[in-house]
Amino acid sequence: MKYIFIINPEAGKEKSKVELDNEIRSVFKDTDFIVEYTRYPGHATEIAMMYASTKEEMIIFACGGDGTINEVVNGMYKYKNAKLALIPIGTGNDFIKFFKKISKDDFLNLEGYKDGQDLPCDLIYSNNRVCLNIASVGFDARVVQKVARFKRLPFVNGGFAYILSVFNSFLASMKFHQALKIDDTYIGYKNYIFIVAANGSYYGGGFHPTPDAKINDGFIDVITIDALSRLRVMTLIKKYKAGEHRSFDFVKEFRCKKMQIIGKKEVVLNMDGETIKVKDPVIEILEKQITLYLPKMNETAA
Ligand SMILES: Nc1ncnc2c1ncn2[C@@H]1O[C@H](COP(=O)(O)OP(=O)(O)OP(=O)(O)O)[C@@H](O)[C@H]1O
């Protein structure tokens, strides 16, 4: 078995990359391991693909935040010889919050991977890309898209870019006029704030849109939020963050294998923090497409 560590030196701030590097060299010293550092956005996809396509049995460790996981998954998901492990040294690390019985410290403890366990996991597919966690269209996708733009400004770091982006998106129209196709059911045009298609259950720094979503059940959990006034949105954000929004009549839930978001114009589609502009995206589940390699724990993870 080969162990490939792909480290994003720009991710998060907590765990020092030097410390992680030393730990890898100490814990994995008697194994066949390689440590690679990303040098630019998108590089983790290239590295993961380069190794996974050799067809050798391997575990690829995505060391970073959710953006790094997304890049690594996109490079390796077609190759069954490669499993994915997660070392959450990013800022939000929302994907791993799905695992109630494995803490962030467990994921960070390299010793735990000597005797880990496999969990086949679904992926969400759209427009030649996959994501492990959550895809969305509407207000939150716009926020993600604008963060990247604000980050390019001088003296603007990630946190400030996020605040600027939320503020800016809040001032723009918050109505997205879309029709939906959920499996074979057509739902006519309506104004939404956003539409979330989830495999995992947390995103955006701890928001909990789909508390019942399971990463290995073969389904996409969809929630839609109808257009509301800005004041109403502000009063409800806390409930949305806590996952307590589902009883409101402006929230609808669906579970499906495939959906389409239909509109007159292109939409911004967010897939785990990566955004693309597309017309009428089809979003579908790829059942058990990837194997997660989880650190040792006492009970089953999902
Ligand atoms: N060497 C690099 N220089 C600049 N950016 C990089 C480099 N390597 C990777 N990136 C980019 O860094 C971005 C942020 O990474 P990531 O999402 O993993 O960390 P984070 O934002 O701290 O965590 P989270 O998404 O969990 O909040 C990714 O979009 C990735 O493309």
UniProtKB/TrEMBL annotation:
This is YegS/Rv2252/BmrU family lipid kinase. InterPro entries: ATP-NAD_kinase_N, Diacylglycerol/lipid_kinase, Diacylglycerol_kinase_cat_dom, Lipid_Phosphate_FormReg, NAD/diacylglycerol_kinase_sf, YegS/DAGK_C. Residues 1-95 form the DAGKc domain. Its cofactor is Mg(2+). GO terms for biological process: phospholipid biosynthetic process. It comes from Breznakia blatticola. Keywords: ATP-binding, Kinase, Lipid biosynthesis, Lipid metabolism, Nucleotide-binding, Phospholipid biosynthesis, Phospholipid metabolism, Transferase. GO terms for molecular function: ATP binding; kinase activity. Belongs to the diacylglycerol/lipid kinase family. Signal peptide: none annotated. It comes from the Bacteria. The lineage of its organism: Bacteria, Bacillati, Bacillota, Erysipelotrichia, Erysipelotrichales.
